[in-house]
Amino acid sequence: MKKLINDPGDVVAEALVGMAAAHPDRLRIDHEQRIVYRADAPRQGKVGLVSGGGSGHEPLHGGFVGPGMLDAACAGEVFTSPVPDQMMAATRAVDGGAGVLHLVKNYTGDVMNFEMAAELAAAEAGTEVASVVIDDDVAVQDSLYTAGRRGVGLTVLLEKIVGAAAEEGRSLQDCADLARALVADGRSMGMALTSCTVPSAGRPTFDLAEDEIELGVGIHGEPGRERRPLAPAREVAAMLVEPVLADLDGAGDDGVIVLLNGMGGTPLIELYLMYGEVARLLDGAGVRVARSLVGNYITSLEMAGCSVTLLRADEERVRLWDAPVNTPGLRWGA
Amino acid sequence: MATVENFTAWVHDFARTIAEHSEQLTDLDRAIGDGDHGSNMTRGTARCAQLTDEQTFTGPGDYLKKVGMTLVSTVGGASGPLYGTFFLRMATSLTEVDDVGPEQLGTALEAGVEGILTRGRAERGDATMYDALAPALESYRQAVADGADLAGALAAAAKAAAEGRDATTDMVARKGRASYLGDRSRGHLDPGAASATLLLESAARTLA
């Protein structure tokens, strides 16, 4: 294992120390509980947005804390859900009287821990909590025989758009309804060129031959639909775009918002090359691109590869997408 | 009769055993999950093993409650809520009981296993820890009904857990990250069933 770390057991804690040092103006970090807060939380009268999950997906989620996006993010160990204590502390801390919305990626551990937090919070009384589970990964068949679709790239778009809605002063119910509508209208598919190495494990999570790709890979190096031989980018782009479009039930009134996301180990030159292929395919399918975002936003440590997320767009979603945001990971208009 | 000293020994033995098998559990998890089961369980159980250095406990219920809360707070993933719920439900079942006999332990184990079932929404054959725990509980009950003492019943439970664990190899995983593999999960032993078997083997060494 070749990583810029000190001790594998200290990676998350030490990354948070660095994050606090890099963004003292915008973030406040509770190092004991491993919670990233926007510096001015709680905001009176604003719905608090709390997300969180395993670490190793940076900038998600801590890098999306700030005005126009999340109020708090709970950091778990690498690829491991945070625990209910963290979610409860974050919920209490960001409650500005308008309630708190939990944004949960659909993984067994995340869902169970957020559920336990909600049960414990209900027992304590006080804060009104709503919860939305994000499950946009079309690689997984949603059936009784799986844990359901995974939450992947849509999480980034959803945190931005719902973050803007909360910033406008919308109610908890409105924000939760908007989030659920986005979940219904967003789909993703990813692929890996290489595996990733969890620091505490010290070895690659899976083995992939030099001439193979894993199609439908998750953001923790979980396997996807199938192994395929390595192919040119234009063919890989089709392997990602086609199943997403097939599942999406058409574009929205204003086309789609596209995220071409890097898994962490693929250079931007390849991501732009891939985005060119994706844009060409969407054009060919008659799908208009309302907005696009290209880069590493929800990663899987040093895994090489990418994912494509399409979200049906309408006027309101585009407006909320364009609204000012000021976080370490996404910043415009502010 | 098992006392709080036995339950303390159980948790300490479990922590030691998990640490010894950490790499093996991680390898099993790498094959079908995300490769963190060993390190997460090691971190959480090691923390549990420190509890008796910090405070004294009045009885098994009191102690197991703290163990459950500690696991929920330190393990993370799905294993934290699942193992945490197991100990919390056992604790509730053993409230105010100082000396735990075979019947009472059976009731407590059943409460714990029921808790895992509720939290994880698993069924038999989904290739989860429940596939080790369910047959263990049945064998325990049967042994007690046949007149076994604690040692005999726990030995039967541990043996059944190991058989249940081994049977997960032929199952298709339907819960957790392994379920994303579909048919590709067949041929792999479930890491949760493996750690649950270690838990019962520890119990057989310490509770009687």
Features:
heterodimer; A: 334 residues; alpha/beta; Rossmann fold; Hypothetical Protein Tm841, Chain: A,domain 3; 2 domains; 6-stranded mixed β-sheet; globular; B: 208 residues; mainly alpha; Serine Threonine Protein Phosphatase 5, Tetratricopeptide repeat; 69% helix
Secondary-structure topology with pairs:
The complex is a heterodimer of chains A (334) and B (208).
Chain A: H1 11-22, E1 27-30, E2 35-38, E3 48-55, E4 72-78, H2 84-94, E5 100-105, H3 108-124, E6 129-134, H4 154-167, H5 172-185, E7 186-192, E8 212-215, E9 226-229, H6 233-248, E10 256-262, H7 268-284, E11 289-295, E12 305-312, H8 315-322, E13 325-326, E14 331-332
Parallel strand pairs in A: 3-4, 3-5, 5-6, 10-11
Antiparallel strand pairs in A: 1-2, 2-4, 7-8, 7-12, 8-9, 10-12, 13-14
Chain B: H1 4-20, H2 22-32, H3 37-49, H4 51-54, H5 60-74, H6 79-93, H7 102-120, H8 130-145, H9 150-167, H10 191-206
Notes on the protein architecture:
- The complex is a heterodimer of chains A (334) and B (208).
- Chain A has 334 residues and is of the alpha/beta class.
- Chain A has eight helices and 14 strands.
- Chain A has helices at 11-22, 84-94, 108-124, 154-167, 172-185, 233-248, 268-284, 315-322, and strands at 27-30, 35-38, 48-55, 72-78, 100-105, 129-134, 186-192, 212-215, 226-229, 256-262, 289-295, 305-312, 325-326, 331-332.
- Chain A has a six-stranded mixed beta sheet with strand order 1-2-4-3-5-6, sandwiched between helices.
- Chain B is 69% helix and 0% strand.
- Chain B has helices at 4-20, 22-32, 37-49, 51-54, 60-74, 79-93, 102-120, 130-145, 150-167, 191-206.
- The model of chain B has no long low-confidence stretch (mean pLDDT 94).
- Chain A binds chain B through residues 54, 76-85, 107-109, 112-113, 115-116, 139-141, 144-147, 150, 198, 200-201, 203, 205-206, 218, 220-224, and chain B through 26, 30, 33-36, 39-40, 43, 72-82, 119-120, 172, 174-177, 179-182, 184.
